[in-house]
Amino acid sequence: MTAELRTGLWVFPDRPVGELLQAVLDSERQGLDEFWLGDEGPAREPFSVLAAASVVTDRIRLCSGVTNPYLRHPALTASTALTIHEFSGGRMVLGVGAGGDMSLQPFGFDAVNPVSRVRSFIEIARSVAQRRACDEYKPPSYAIDENIVGSRLTVFVGSRSEKINRLASEVADGVFVAGMPPFRFGEVIGWARSRRPIDVALYPSAAFSDEAIECNRPQMIWGLLNGPQAARDRLGVSAEELQQAADELRSGDDSRARSLITDRRLGELILVGSVEEIGCRLAALVQS
């Protein structure tokens, strides 16, 4: 585990590509250390954006946050990540998780056997990176690998579940902790560091304005729907209510989702306030 404290930004890929690229450039110019771009199925494709960003930035780490083994083959994903790693001079971070309803349901996929699928994804991706044969990959002579690129490809795991975070502690370089209420961070980080003290990328959602609050409000149902029952119990909302709201949200009606995520619930799910107030809360989260 590195003791270095890094700062960064996670962005949902629903904006025009030009805006996403500008966000990477602005992040580097403002002194941030890393930029995470979500992989949300039919939204903007993150690896293409990160590849473009790799040739117009010099320093910032470029991270997929996070892809999944149901929509992407691990060997092809690893070669894509390694290509961006080469483009960027060793700044790519491959983030992987089990995926959620937002990314999988538009394609009719369910996260079946998520722990074994994530484990297999990482094993195959590592085999590609290290030019090492495994059951599902036999490296040809023309394959890209870490030696060609010149630096090791970092792999992070992003998940809300205990089993996958414990898996990350065993096989990953770090965990991407996001898409969950801050009151769960301690528990999740504990699972992720149960075997080894791996790195933690802590990314709570934040809203600095009324516009941002209302933009975030309906989207908060996804993390609750895919999260543990204990989180739903704490906020007094059922999985059935959330599923109904999610179905309507996919169809373009966000009214039920907005009514479920009251101000009280929203205040527990994301950081809300001024830049200074949220900065203080972030500092407290890091300290804890």
From TrEMBL:
GO terms for molecular function: oxidoreductase activity, acting on paired donors, with incorporation or reduction of molecular oxygen. SUPFAM superfamilies: Bacterial luciferase-like (SSF51679). Keywords: Oxidoreductase. Pfam families: Bac_luciferase. InterPro entries: F420-G6PD/mer, Luciferase-like_dom, Luciferase-like_sf. Residues 16-287 form the Luciferase-like domain. PANTHER family: 5,10-METHYLENETETRAHYDROMETHANOPTERIN REDUCTASE (PTHR43244:SF1), PTHR43244. This is Luciferase-like domain-containing protein.
